[in-house]
Amino acid sequence: MSSSKARTSRRLREHVSSLETMTRFVLATLALASGVYTYLGVRSLLDGDATIVFFAAIVYSVAVSVGIYGFWVYLSRFLPELRDGASRLALVAIMAVGSVMIIAMSSWLNAAALAGSAAVEQHLAVTQEGYTADLDQAHSNALGALSLLPDIQRASERFARLAEDERESGALTGTSGSGTVVQLLTQMSAQMRELEATIQGSRDTVRTLFEEGQQHLATMRGLVSGAGSVQPRADSFASEAVALSGVISSLEQTSIAPSVARAAADLSVGFIAPVAGGGTADLAGRQNQIMDTIRTSVAAQSEALSAAAAEILAQPKVEERRFVPLSSAEAVILYAGSFLPSWAGAISIDLLPGVLVAILAVAHAAMRRGEDEMDDAERITAADMMRSLEIHEAIAARRRAAAIEDAVPQEDIAAVAQTEQDQPPPAAENVTPLSVADRKRHEL
Questions:
Q1: CA-based nearest residue to 305, from 201, 194, 151
Q2: Which residues form a coiled coil (predicted)?
Q3: Residue-range domain boundaries for the chain
Q4: Spatial contact of 257 and 313, defined as CB atoms under 8 Å apart
Q5: Residue 388 buriedness (CB in 10 A; 0-12 / 13-18 / 19+)
Q6: What are phi and psi of 442, to 5 degrees?
């Protein structure tokens, strides 16, 4: 069991060592890709001289790439090596803070580069739908007074018919002819026809304005779904939006409902009955009685028209809408819910190295667990054993030399040294220098 864990730990360490270059390459590639998309996102935000914008975007994107690469390299080095839980949790917290900072300085710009044009087009489409609803509401409000036409026409026809019946057969007073009652009925019928003509006249104006607004909307729809760069289309869209806002305001002011309400009130308040012109007291009395009836009828008609006009005026007014141009980055943030795949890709390209760091941490933890359960002998490799033997022999040689130096008199040592100096040096190929101080120990 211990030998199996030893082999596993040794293989894991070998794999980690062999993948070190690949890990750096992956981190560098992801950081470079993030920098490129960050550059595209920054270019859409900056204004001014083209050269200054270019260099500013380059500097920012390079800084982002270097920062991301360094951040993940540090974590890949330190996090897998930590053993105690407190230090590891602290570094994980730092990694979380760093990830948030990476999202703030890079990921949203990457999303702007990936889906910025589509987000701006969606902003134009949403705005165009709002203007369509405003135009329809303004048109409906302007035509609201037309719903009063049937009532006004019926009242006008009724007054005209009563006047004609009174003139021909005296249906109201019992005496035919064009008397006071006929004149009053004819007057009321004329007032109703004038009010009807006013409402009918507003219909042509409303139709013209509505058709003009529809033309602006058609142009705006074409700009939303058009081809080419989105920024010139957004500028043209803004011009059409301003023109359409003017049309909607004109429709609001064209509504004839306030005029109808005032005219309806005048029917009752401004009612002036003529003096009865009957030749006899009996006829004059009948005329006064009929005029009182007409007054009551006019008052009821005025009240009905005023109530209908009040309902029209109570309809909600169209609020002024103003088109606000958005940059690609602002549009991506505003409509983030519609571009979740782009946001996911933009964030993943920045935070994917965190997965590699986690893999390294797990691998190092497994290696440590395997090594902790092994005996000391199982942890020593063949190379470690060879180095240990060489060091042992070197130490033993030094001890023997020290012992000989202590046992032999100084004169003999000097004679031996002189003899060794007189002897020719041995062949270089038969000498193997051993330096314990200069030898470096490398772990597998």
A1: 151
A2: 185-212
A3: 2-81+337-372, 120-326, 381-430
A4: yes
A5: exposed
A6: -115, 130
